[in-house]
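retry 2 of 3: previous attempt timed out while embedding SN-glycerol-3-phosphate. Reduced batch size to 1 and resubmitted. Inputs unchanged:
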Amino acid sequence: MKIFIDTANIEHIREINSWGILSGVTTNPTLCAREGREFRSVIKEITEIVDGPISAEVVSFDKEGMLKEAHELSKIAENVIIKIPITPEGLAATKALSSERIQVNMTLVFSVNQALLAARAGASYASIFLGRLDDIGHDGISILSDIVTAYENYGITTEIIAASIRHPMHVTEVALTGVDIATIPYKVIKTMAKHPLTDKGIDRFLEDWNKLNKLISTKK
Ligand code: G3P
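retry 2 succeeded.
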C-alpha cells in the first residue's frame, strides 16, 4: 500500500518525505485554505519536494470551468494530478481530460456506484472518504472493501485512495482491504511510527550499553 500525505503544509511534507516512505501528496481546498498562501505556489513547491503524484483540486462546478482550471494546474508540473469531485459535470470533465492523457483523481466518492462511474470516466485515482462515511453512521471500511472487490471483479486499473483517514486504526483496517493507496494526515503518520515498546526497548538497550561501558572503564 502506497502512503500519501494529506496536507498542504510544506514543513510537514518535508519532514515526512525525509523518512523516505512517501509516494505522493493530496490536497483539497480546505487544506490549502488552512495554509493561507496562494494556492498555485504551494502546489508548485510541493511538486518540487515530493517525487510522486500531487493532487490539486478544481473549484468550478461546470465542465468548462473544470477543464480550464485543470489545464492551468497541469502546467505547474508534470506530477500534478487534477482532483475533480464526482458529479455529472465532473465525470464529463474527467472523460475529456483522460482522453488528453491528463490524470484525474476523482474525489468525494462515497459508494461502489460512484467508484464504478469514476473508473468508466477514465479517472486514474478514486478517493473514498472513510471518515466522512463513519461520521454519518455508515461503515466506511466496509464500503471501501466493496469498492476494492468491485474493481478486482473487472480488472479496473483506477487506483483506489483511502481518504478522510482520522486515526491509526483506520490505516490498519484500510491496509487489510487491499486498497492501493492511503492518504494520511501528518499527525496520524507520526503516530504510526510510535510504539511504547519501541521506546521502552531503546531505553533498555541504552541503559545496558552504558552499564557495559561503565564496567569496562572501572576495570581499566
Ligand atoms: O483526503 C480527504 C480529506 O482531506 C478529508 O478529510 O477529515 O476532512 O474528512 P476529512
